[in-house]
Amino acid sequence: MAKEKITKKVKTMGKTIKKTADSLLTGQPVWVWSLSYAVAGAVVFLLAWVFFKILDKFWWLLLIILITAGAVYGTIAHSKQKK
């Protein structure tokens, strides 16, 4: 039930973002579209670059997070299975 609510919220948010973005770019020349896609690509690239730079220095942090997440998930799954 909760998963369906989250999925519905994500779809609604996606439609809202799409409507906003479409209204911003409607009637604009092709170079505006190209520029917006280039900026969006640059932002995604920058975020990935920063993430991997941090990961390069603190790789052990990711390891701890993954092990902890696995332990928590396993504990929750095991406790649900006992019921």
Number of strands: 0
What's the rounded overall pLDDT mean?
A: 84
The portion of residues assigned to helices is: over 70%
- The radius of gyration is 20 Å
Order of helices and strands: HHH
Q: What is the global morphology?
A: flat
Largest sheet: none
The chain-level structural class is: mainly alpha
Which regions are unreliable across 5 or more consecutive residues at pLDDT < 50?
none
Taken together, the total number of domains comes to 1
What do these coordinates show?
- The protein is mainly α and 83 residues long.
- Helix content is 92%, strand content 0%.
- The protein is built from three helices and no strands.
- Helix 2 packs across helix 3.
- The chain starts with a helix and ends with a helix.
In short:
With 83 residues, the chain is mainly alpha-helical.
Topology:
Blueprint: H1 2-25, H2 30-57, H3 59-82
Helix pairs in contact: 2-3
What key phrases describe this protein's structure?
single chain, 83 residues, mainly alpha, 92% helix, 0% strand, flat
